[in-house]
Specification:
With 164 residues, the chain is mostly helical. It has helices at 7-54, 59-63, 69-85, 91-96, 119-136, 144-163.
Length: 164
């Protein structure tokens, strides 16, 4: 059973087929380009590794004219990962090769760390938890050894209270 197509349907169908084919071709070109970039980056890493054998004491100085110490480390790291993974593409290799720029997300910029809880809030929380435990098991039910331990633990709190 063949579907009856209107002129709009035929144009839409044709446009989708063309766009789909173009997308597949673009993806194939992108993959080929990524593979070429991986191979070239791996070659750089292999050459740096050779240079490292000869100039182990001053590799970064030897390479300084062409690349920074960070780039040298990055290419060596890429080469090591590339040898282990083969042609398996992953985010790490894409990032290390410079294809994928790992940018900080907008909402993560200029985020000030959350301040530590204030003394009043910390004390209130402690007292609330302490009272909850006392409600379940009053101090009168504690053995003498446990009472002494609690006194020792709470002594700094009592000293602080008395200093106020």
């Amino acid at each position: 059973m063949e579907i009856q197509r209107t002129d709009i349907d035929q144009h839409l169908h044709s446009a989708i087929a063309i766009a789909h084919t173009e997308r597949k071709e673009a993806v194939a070109r992108a993959r080929n380009s990524i593979n070429a970039a991986f191979e070239k980056t791996a070659r750089v890493g292999a050459l740096i590794e050779k240079a490292q054998q000869i100039h182990s004491q001053d590799l970064f100085g030897f390479m300084a004219e062409h690349m920074t110490a960070e780039e040298v480390k990055q290419d060596l790291s890429f080469y090591d990962a590339y040898r282990k993974r083969g042609e398996l593409m992953d985010k790490r290799l894409l990032t290390q090769s410079g294809i994928w720029e790992q940018k900080q997300m907008e909402y993560m910029r200029d985020v000030t760390p959350k301040p530590s809880p204030g003394l009043v809030r910390t004390t209130s929380s402690f007292v609330g938890k302490f009272n909850k435990i006392l409600g379940k098991r009053p101090a009168e039910e504690w053995p003498a050894s446990e009472r002494e331990q609690i006194k020792d633990v709470l002594k700094p709190v009592a000293d602080f209270y008395n200093s106020l």
